[in-house]
Amino acid sequence: MEAKILDGSAVAKEIRAELAQRVEKLKSERGITPRLSVILVGTDPASVTYTKMKKKASEAIGMLSDLIELPEDSTQEQVKDVIRGLNEDPTVHGILVQHPVPKHLDELDILATVAVEKDVDGISALSLGRLVLGNADFVSCTPLGIITLMERYGIEIKGKEAVVVGRSIILGKPAALALLERNATVTICHSRTQNLPEVVRRADILVAAIGKAEFIKGDWIKMGAVVIDAGYNRVEGTKTDVGDVEFNEAVKRASYITPVPGGVGPMTIAMLLAQTVKAANKYGR
């Protein structure tokens, strides 16, 4: 029996509809319109596409959204000055700095400038520190999307053995922390993990976030495991996108699996919107 598909597109659509109602309530009862400001430094084609998608998604549920485009050669202080201005603007409830920034900039220092109550992307040092402490207002959007998707499908996390393949600060590490917060037993794997297939075979819940096309083979998957593929890789010479997991084989062994595309990706944007609405509700005036 093949795995059930975790349809992130369908769940994200439901969440956006719920958020549209919350936005309308904030407007009518408190006169607050949630507003997300996205800062794009440079003209990286993928980043340009992503920022436009976020703006369109925000406006579709009744939010306000600004796209602030800065030149590629912007200095550290110029970018931080823009953020400071947004921090002080009471009509702005969420600030997102599109990743990656140009190499001459210190991204962590820039993220640290974002006020924690407006860090709806959840990846500043303070937000990540609060996640470790278990009292984060905002969680990195992709890990939060993964958790939300599993919860919407009624998948039990408590007591399960979870394996996260990847340790980035925007995905692997916060995903591990979010699973730990929900009482999973978590192993984080990386490029120097020994006997990776054997570690993966222990996973009741597998989160693949390594950034290598179909790196995790289907026969590594434990029978009945939940497979969350957060990878997104273009097959060279084609227009086909695949995840980090060998889907056609893994689907024969897993109980649930996310497709690529249409799994984790739509949930990431939905969580960005949800956390901006949350910020407006909690801190807006």
What does this structure look like?
- By secondary structure, the chain is an alpha/beta fold.
- It has two domains: 31-124, Leucine Dehydrogenase, chain A, domain 1 (Rossmann fold, 3-Layer(aba) Sandwich), CATH 3.40.50; 141-265, NAD(P)-binding Rossmann-like Domain (Rossmann fold, 3-Layer(aba) Sandwich).
- It is 42% helix and 15% strand.
- The protein has ten helices and eleven strands.
- It has helices at 8-30, 45-60, 76-88, 107-113, 125-133, 141-152, 172-181, 196-200, 247-250, 264-283; strands spanning 4-5, 35-41, 64-70, 94-97, 161-165, 185-189, 205-208, 226-229, 233-234, 241-242, 256-257.
- The strands form three sheets. It has a six-stranded parallel β-sheet.
- Helix 1 packs parallel to helix 10 (264-283) and helix 6 (141-152) crosses helix 10 (264-283).
- The relative contact order is 0.17.
- The model has no long low-confidence stretch (mean pLDDT 95).
